[in-house]
Amino acid sequence: MQAKGKILWTDLTVENAEEIKDFYGSVIGWTFSEQPLDDYVDYNVHNTLEAGDECIAGICHKKGSNANIPAQWLNYVIVKNLSESLENCQKLGGKTIDGPRKMGKDMFAVIQDPAGAYLALMEATETAI
What we know:
Distance between the termini: 10 Å
């Protein structure tokens, strides 16, 4: 099981994922692999600048189930109980922007804190990303 409270993953969800992928490939030197979906592909970001080939993030298309996700680098954090965390978010002046919904076998939601920043919360499971 993944550690609760830990940043687990980072995604960038944008209208022009292929163009932005190429931008970061040129600017940083990242490489990419395709993540096939129903009628398009998203991209896994690989850090091949150091020894190894670590998959470190994703660049996704802002369409379908991802249409409401903001265009920014979005961190995913593991929480013990997603429903409880969303309830606390609302009570403390935050908003649920997307979800809760499934990602594979896991449940997640995107929140906005009272300062306007976004974060994705993923319920802790044995399979979390």
